[in-house]
C-alpha cells in the first residue's frame, strides 16, 4: 500500500452533541508529515466557542442525567463507547497515521486497542469501587462518597493523540464529570471523533465536547475559564507552567504528565538478546517522540563495544518510511518545526564533541516521500552526562550512549536530570535490580522491559516530569471530590 491520497477532510468543533463551525468561520490547515500533503481543514475555535463548549459541559453536569446516573448505567454506556472505538479502529488508526505520521499497523493493534481498553477499564473500575465507613462506637458513623468534580479540560499532545485522550476521558466520565477536550493543533483528526462516538454510545449531549486550535488561544481560554474546575494535561513542562499560572486565579485542580529524559541502564550481566531489542524500542518507538523514551542509554564500560556494535546493527536494520505501509518501523517526525528542533541537536552534538555512531541525517527514500520529515535512527556516544544532548528532551529518534563503570556511578548519572518520569534497568542480578529501582528518582521503573502498562498502577513523574498520578484509583481520586458524611446514630 502507498500513502493514501485522501480528499481534504473538513473537521468541525464538537459542542453540545453536534459538529459546528467556529463562530468566525475561521479554519486552520493540517498536513501529512509523511509528504506534506494537505489533509484537513479544521474549524479554529474562538474564545466565544470555548465559552460555549464550557457552558454546554457545565449545563450537562448540573442539569443533565450524567452525574446522577447509576454507575451500572454510566459504565454500560462507556463500554459501548469502547466497542465503537474498536468497530472504528481502522479509521482512527488511519487518522493518527495521517496527521502524526505513526506507523498504521502498530497504531491499529497497539494504541487504538489500548484506547478502547482505557475506556472499558475505567468503566469496570468505577463500577467495582467501594467507599470507606468509619464507625465511632455506637454513637456516630462516617461514610465517604466520591462525587464528580465538575467540568474537566483535557489538554493532550500530538505524539499519542487518541490513546492519551482516552486515558484521561475514561476516568473523567466514569466518575460522572463532563469534558471539554483540546487536542494538539497539528494532530486533531482522531480526537475529533470522540464527541460523536460518545453520542453514538448514548452519552448525553454536552458531556463530551471537542474544541480545536492553538494552545496559546484555545488552551489558554480553557485554563482561564471560570466554568472549568480541573485540568488534566499531558505535554511539555514549559506549557504546564503556563497552565498552572493561568488556572491559579480560578483555583483549578491540575494533573500534569510531562517530559522525560529516561536513563536506560545496561549492566554487564544484562541479557543482551533482550536488552538490545528492548532498548531499540525504548529509543525509537514513535520516532522517539515519547515522553517515556529511553533516550540516555547508560552502558557498563566492560560491554560497551559489544553493545554498541549490536545496537548499531539493530538500529540500521529498522525500516524508516511511509507510515501507511506494512512493515514500517519508523515514520516521519510530526512537523517541520519539530524536525528543525530535533535536527538542531545534530549541531549541538558536534559542538559538544559527541561521537556519532549512526544516523544524523535523512534516510534515502523514494521520491513520493521526498517532502516528509524523516530521520535515520541516530546514535551518539558521549562521556559527559552534563552535555546538552544528555540533559535536554530532544523528543526524536536520537539517543546518547553514556558509559559508566560502577553501580554508584550509574545511579548518579541516572539521577542527574531535571526529569523523573521513568527509568529502565537491564540486569540478571535480582538484588541489583531492586537496588537500582529504589535508587532512581522516577515514577516508573521498568526492569528488563519497557512501556509495559498496567492501568491499575500509578503513572506519573517525579521532579519536572509532572504533578500527580494517573492510573486506577489515582485517576479516580483526581476526577472526584471526597465527601465525608457523619451520622448520629442516637
Ligand atoms: N507527552 C509528552 O511528554 C510530550 C512532551 N512534549 C515536549 O514538548 C516539546 C514541545 O511540544 P509542543 O507541541 O509545543 O508541546 P505543548 O506542551 O506545547 O503541547 C501540548 C498541548 O498543550 C497545548 N498548549 C500549548 N500551549 C498552551 C497554553 N498556553 N495553555 C493551554 N494549552 C496549551 C497544545 O495546544 C497541545 O494541545 C516537544 O518537543 C517535547 O519535548 C510534547 C508533547 C508531548
Ligand atoms: O501509557 C500511558 O498511559 C502514557 C503514555 C504516554 C506517552 O506515550 C507520552 O506521553 O509520550
UniProtKB/TrEMBL annotation:
Catalytic residues as annotated in Swiss-Prot or TrEMBL: 257
UniProt-listed PROSITE patterns: ALDEHYDE_DEHYDR_CYS (PS00070), ALDEHYDE_DEHYDR_GLU (PS00687)
InterPro entries tied to this protein:
Ald_DH/histidinol_DH, Ald_DH_C, Ald_DH_CS_CYS, Ald_DH_CS_GLU, Ald_DH_N, Aldehyde_DH_dom
Which top-level group of life is the source organism from? Answer: Bacteria
- Signal sequence interval, chain numbering: none
Pfam families found in the cross-reference section: Aldedh
**Coiled-coil segments:** none
Could you say which protein family the record assigns here?
A: Belongs to the aldehyde dehydrogenase family.
Q: Which residues form the Aldehyde dehydrogenase domain?
A: 20-485
Gene3D superfamilies recorded for this chain?
A: Aldehyde Dehydrogenase, Chain A, domain 1, Aldehyde Dehydrogenase, Chain A, domain 2
**Name under which the protein is recorded:** Aldehyde dehydrogenase
Keyword line: NAD, Oxidoreductase
Q: Please name the SUPFAM superfamilies in this protein's record.
A: ALDH-like
Amino acid at each position: 500500500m502507498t500513502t493514501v491520497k485522501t480528499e481534504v477532510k473538513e473537521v468541525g468543533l464538537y459542542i453540545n452533541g453536534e459538529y459546528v463551525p467556529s463562530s468566525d468561520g475561521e479554519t486552520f490547515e493540517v498536513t501529512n508529515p509523511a509528504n506534506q500533503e494537505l489533509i484537513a481543514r479544521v474549524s479554529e475555535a474562538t474564545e466565544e466557542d470555548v465559552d460555549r463548549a464550557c457552558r454546554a459541559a457545565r449545563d450537562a453536569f448540573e442539569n443533565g442525567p450524567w452525574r446522577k446516573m447509576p454507575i451500572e448505567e454510566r459504565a454500560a454506556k462507556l463500554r459501548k463507547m469502547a466497542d465503537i472505538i474498536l468497530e472504528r479502529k481502522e479509521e482512527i488508526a488511519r487518522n493518527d497515521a495521517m496527521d502524526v505520521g505513526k506507523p498504521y499497523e502498530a497504531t491499529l493493534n497497539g494504541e487504538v486497542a489500548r484506547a478502547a481498553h482505557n475506556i472499558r477499564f475505567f468503566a469496570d473500575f468505577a463500577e467495582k469501587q467501594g467507599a470507606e465507613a468509619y464507625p465511632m462506637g455506637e454513637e456516630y458513623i462516617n461514610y465517604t462518597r466520591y462525587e464528580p468534580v465538575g467540568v474537566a479540560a483535557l489538554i493532550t499532545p500530538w505524539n499519542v493523540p487518541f490513546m492519551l485522550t482516552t486515558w484521561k476521558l475514561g476516568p473523567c466520565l466514569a466518575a460522572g464529570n463532563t469534558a471539554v477536550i483540546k487536542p494538539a493543533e497539528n494532530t486533531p483528526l482522531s480526537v475529533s471523533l470522540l464527541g460523536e462516538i460518545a453520542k453514538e454510545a448514548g452519552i448525553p449531549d454536552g458531556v463530551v465536547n471537542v474544541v480545536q486550535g492553538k494552545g496559546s488561544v484555545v488552551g489558554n481560554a480553557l485554563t482561564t475559564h471560570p466554568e472549568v474546575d480541573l485540568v488534566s494535561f499531558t505535554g511539555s513542562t514549559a506549557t504546564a507552567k503556563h497552565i498552572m499560572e493561568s488556572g491559579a486565579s480560578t483555583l483549578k485542580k491540575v494533573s500534569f504528565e510531562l517530559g522525560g529524559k529516561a536513563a536506560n541502564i545496561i549492566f554487564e550481566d544484562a541479557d543482551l538478546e533482550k536488552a538490545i531489542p528492548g532498548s531499540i524500542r525504548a529509543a525509537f518507538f514513535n520516532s522517539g517522540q515519547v515522553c517515556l523514551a529511553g533516550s540516555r542509554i547508560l552502558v557498563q564500560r566492560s560491554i560497551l563495544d559489544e553493545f554498541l556494535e549490536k545496537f548499531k546493527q539493530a538500529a540500521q536494520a529498522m525500516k524508516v518510511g511511509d507510515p501507511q505501509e506494512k512493515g514500517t518501523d519508523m515514520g516521519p517526525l510530526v512537523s517541520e518545526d519539530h524536525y528543525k528542533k530535533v535536527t538542531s541537536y545534530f549541531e549541538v552534538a558536534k559542538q559538544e564533541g559527541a561521537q556519532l555512531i549512526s544516523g544524523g541525517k535523512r534516510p534515502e527514500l523514494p521520491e513520493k516521500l521526498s517532502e516528509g520529515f524523516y530521520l535515520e535512527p541516530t546514535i551518539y556516544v558521549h562521556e559527559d552526562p552534563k552535555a546538552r544532548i544528555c540533559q535536554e528532551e530532544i523528543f526524536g529518534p536520537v539517543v546518547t550512549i553514556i558509559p559508566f563503570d560502577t553501580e554508584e556511578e550509574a545511579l548518579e548519572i541516572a539521577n542527574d536530570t531535571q526529569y523523573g518520569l521513568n527509568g529502565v534497568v537491564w540486569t540478571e542480578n535480582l538484588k541489583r535490580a531492586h537496588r537500582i529501582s529504589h535508587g532512581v528518582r522516577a515514577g516508573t521503573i521498568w526492569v528488563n522491559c519497557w512501556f509495559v502498562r498496567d492501568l491499575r498502577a500509578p503513572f506519573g513523574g517525579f521532579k519536572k516530569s509532572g504533578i500527580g498520578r494517573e492510573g486506577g484509583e489515582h485517576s479516580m481520586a483526581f476526577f472526584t471530590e471526597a465527601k465525608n458524611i457523619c451520622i448520629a446514630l442516637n
